[in-house]
Amino acid sequence: MVSALNLKFIFLLAWYYGFNTILRGPSYLVASLSTPLTLLFLVYILSHGAFVSYAVVGGFTALISTISLSSAGDAAFLRLQLRFQDLLVATEVGPTDYMLGLTLAYLVFSLPGIAIYAVFGAYLHLFTIINSLELTGLLVILVIATASFSFIISGLIKHVRNVWGIAGILSIVMTVLPPTSYPYTFLPNWGIWALSLSPTTPTAILAQGIFSLSPMYPIMIVILLSETVLFFVLARYLTRWREV
Amino acid sequence: MIRTEDIRKEYSDGTVALKGVTVNIDKRFTAIIGRNGAGKTTFVRILSTQLLPTSGKAFLDDIDLIREPRKARREIASIPQEAMPIGVLTPLELVKMYLIARGMSFKDSHETALKALDALQLREFKDKPTDTLSGGTKRKIFVCMALAANASTIFMDEPTTGLDPISRLEVWSALRMLTGNIILTTHYMEEAKELSQDVILVDSGRVIERGTVDVLLSRFAGLVRAESYTPKPGTTRIGGIYIRYIKSSEAEEFLHSGFNIKGITLDDVFIKHGVSLES
Q: What is the pTM of this model?
C-alpha cells in the first residue's frame, strides 16, 4: 500500500495546507483553539482547579478532534466550491493520498495548540517520557479516525451552504460531550458506550488511564482502532473520487 | 484521438444527462458548446476520468478511458468548471503541487512551474496568496497548471466563464500557448470561434451539430437574422425576442416592418436549435 502512495504529494499538501494556513490565516488557528481553551478555563473555574489535569490531558484530544472534525466543512468546501478534488482526480493522486495529505495538514495545523497544552502539562508536571509517547501515538490514531469521519461527512454533503453548520454541530457533539474535561468515571456505563461512537471518547478515556488520572479501560484501545480502520475504509469509498 | 461510442449517463436522481454520444475528436482545438445543462460538463468529466458513464465506451488513442483511468491520467490534464485556487496558497505553490500530484519530482516541479509562470507572465505574482489576485489571474493559474503538465490532451471546462473581456482575452492568449490537443467547453460562441478548429454542439444530452466554424456558418449563407421585441407573423419566440431568419435581400423590407436586422454569427447556430426546440 505504501509503495502505491504518492508520498511527495501527501507531505507537500500537508506542509502547504497546514503550515501556510497558520502563517497566512492565523485567525483560523485562534478559532480552532477557542473551544478547547474555553473548556479549560470553565473547568478551572467550576472545579476550583480540581479537574484541570483532566482538562489539560483531554485538551490534546479535544483540540485534535475539533480541528479534524471542522475539516469536514473544509473538505466539502474544497470539493464543492473550489473544485480542488476534481482537479486532482485526473492526476496520479488517489483518494487515499488526498485524505492522508489533508489529515496530516490538520495535524500540522494542530501543532501550535498542542504546544500550548504541552506547556500547561509541563507546568502541572504531568509528563513522563513513556506517557508522552503513548499520548502521541493515541493522538496520531485519533487524527486519522476523526479526519476519516470528516471525509465521510464531507462526501455526503451535497450543498456547500450546509457545510459549516454540520461541521460546527459535529465539533461540539464529538468534542464537548466526550470526557475530555472530566473523569470518565462520572459517566454511567451506558453513557460510556453511547459516547464511544465518537473516537474522541475512547481516546480521552485511554489518555486518562495513561496519565493515571482514572483507572485504565483497556477495551477502549480495541474500540478506537476498530473505529479508525472502519472510518478510514469507509472514507476511502465515500469521498466521491471518481463519481458514479 | 478521442473516440466515444454511445456514451450515456443517467444520474441517481433520474436525470439523463447524456443520451448516446458518439464522436471522434482529433483536432488541436475542439469546442463543445451548448446551453447550461446541455450535458457538456458531464461529457468532459467522463472523458477526463472523473465520472463513470452509465453505458458506452470512450478511448484516448488505444487507452480505454472507462476501464484504464490510471493509464489515461498520465496523458491528460483536466481543469474543472469554476475551479478556484486555494486562497492561502501562492501560484507557485499551486502549480508545483499540481505537478507533484502528476508524479513529477520536487526539483523538476519547481523549475517547470517557474517556466510556466514565466510563459504566462505570472512570475510577479508567484509568491502572493491567490486570494489577493484578480479573477483573470486566478484562472490563468489553472491554465498555467495545464501548460506545465505538458499533457497530450487537455480538458478545460468553461475556462473563461464569469471573466471580464480583458481577462478573457488574457486567458485565450494563455490557452493558445498550451501544447497538446485541447477540448474546451463553453457557452460563448465567440470563444469557440476564436479558439476552435472543430465545434461540437450539444443539446439535451445529444450532439446536434458538428463541424468547423465555417461549415456551421455556411448553412446560413445568404441569410440574416430579423429580431423584434413584439410578436410578428412567422417568428419564433426566444425569451422576449421574436426571431426569424430571412434572405439578406429581404432585410430592407423587414427593417421597415419594425424588425432589427443582425448579421449571422456563430450564435445563430446555437439559436437556430433553440428556435426549433421552442417551436
A: 0.84
Nearest-CB residue to B51 (from A25, A93, A242): A242
A10 near B CB under 8 A: no
CA geometry: angle B234, B238, B243, nearest 5 deg:
35
B100 touches chain A (CB under 8 A): yes
Decide if A13 is inside a domain.
Answer: no
Provide the residue range defining the domain that includes A132: 27-238
- Helix and strand tally (H, E) in chain A? 11, 0
Q: Which residue in the set B69, B79, B89 is minimally distant from A87, CB to CB?
A: B79
Q: Which position has the grid cell 446555437?
A: B270
Which residues are CB-contacts of A128 (< 8 A; sequence separation ≥ 6)? none
Residues in A touching B79 (Cβ below 8 Å): 87
pLDDT per residue as tens digits for the range A33-45: 887 788 889 989 9
Measured CA to CA in angstroms, residue A129 lies from A50, A91, A132, A221 at distances of 24, 42, 5, 20
> Scanning the structure block, which residue is given the C-alpha cell 472510518?
A231
Inspect the interface and report whether the beta carbons of B80 and A83 lie closer than 8 Å. yes
**Alpha carbon B50 to chain centroid, angstroms:** 17
Distance from CA of B238 to the nearest CA of A (A): 31
Is A82 in contact with B86 (Cβ distance < 8 A)?
Answer: yes
Residue B275 is predicted with a pLDDT of: 54
Domain annotation covers residue A7: no
Nearest to A16 among B76, B82, B89 (CB): B89
Which class does domain B2-216 fall in? alpha beta
In a domain, A6, yes or no: no
In whole angstroms, give the CA distance from residue A151 to residue A21. Answer: 19
Contact A90 B76 (CB under 8 A): yes
The residue among B103, B41, A12, B258 whose CA lies nearest residue B21 is: B41
The minimal CB distance from B101 to the residues A21, A82, A88 is found for A88
> Nearest CA to B261 among B233, B231, B223, B232?
B223
What is the percent of chain B with per-residue pLDDT over 70, rounded to a whole number?
Answer: 98
Domain spans of chain B, in order of start:
2-216, 221-263
